[in-house]
Amino acid sequence: MKLRQLQFVKSVAETGSFSKAAEQCCATQPTLSNAIAQLEEELGGKLFDRTTRKVGLTAFGAHILGRIEEVLRAEQDVLQAAKAYHDPDHKLLRIGFSPLVDMGLLNHILQPFCHKYQDIEFFFKECLLDDLSQRLRDDVIDIAIIPASMLETGYEHRSFYKDPLFYLAKDGTKLPQPGSSLKLADLPSDPVIMTGGGCGLNGALERLFQNEGATLTPYRGQAMSYPVIEEWADLGIGAGILPQAKLSQSRGITYPLALKDGSEASFEFSWVWPHNAKLRPHIALFTDYIETIVPSLITGSDGIVPMRASQSS
Known about the structure:
- The chain is an alpha/beta fold.
- 40% of the residues lie in helices and 21% in strands.
């Protein structure tokens, strides 16, 4: 198994085309096709269904793609670690985050810091929650962003932002006027489509419903991504609950969720870093920025309008 083969698979999965993937990877199509065929033989199963019209992942391919992406991300970690070793004066700030995090908002609040400290390089790492904790302990990342309800002891943490939650009704379910809010305790009995769990969606929803004394009935199957949750809700398989940042731009009808006191139901996210850690000077600069500047960027009290990655109707 070679990294080049894994890169080929990732590119085909992203482009849905062997020819486009070959062009993206600066390889000939026969080279790419042969490399993937050899990898399929080594792994014992086909990764792609190929027709004259399209290329799609097989069930086995969908199962294994996440592991392939993990290996390719690990390659980048090794390269960054080597760079840091050979150039100890290089200022690298490594931020890990749950897939639930609003990347548009994160990018927005980083801009003033990046403009002021142009010698500091940011390295982003999207990880599952268990992986984030381990990477903090192993000093593979410097700061993490996770759902506040999933915080562990032994870490410093500061509030980042809240992302409102929206209900995606199962197709065919009768609900009030679109756009009107729904309380968690009053939701239909339709099962709610969840993910595999590592991103934090499942755990954060379970804690939220438990705190509200409401019943959450998970759908027996699991979606691999947030767009799949939307698709399955539209197909009538089950209902969905997603934070605003993870709703697709083209999403139609959604229902804002509310708590029993009428306030907005949301996921809160926090910055996290090791407790009592001796932070490198450039990282200490950033944690000070988190505490003193970021709150005003989030509220817009600095005169800058807060940015959302997506807006729901």
